[in-house]
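Why does residue order matter? Because the sequence determines the fold. Keep that principle in mind as you read this record.
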Amino acid sequence: MLSRMSRDALLAAETKITLAFMVLGLTAWYLVGTVADSDLLEVGALLGVGVVLPTLINELRRRSGSESEPGAE
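Structure:
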């Protein structure tokens, strides 16, 4: 059986963020579909929450991490 530390090492922080927002994106897509009868809003919720937000968050984390390292560009 894998220890807690080795299981966490199997998934990078970026992967965890992406997976969490995928679930949130699917939830947003479903909720928008039940509340509003607009395919455009459904696609916007799915792509906005499931793709765009995790990409932005991961890029911001990557850039802020590279700025704190000396000599990184």
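Residues 13-64 form one domain.
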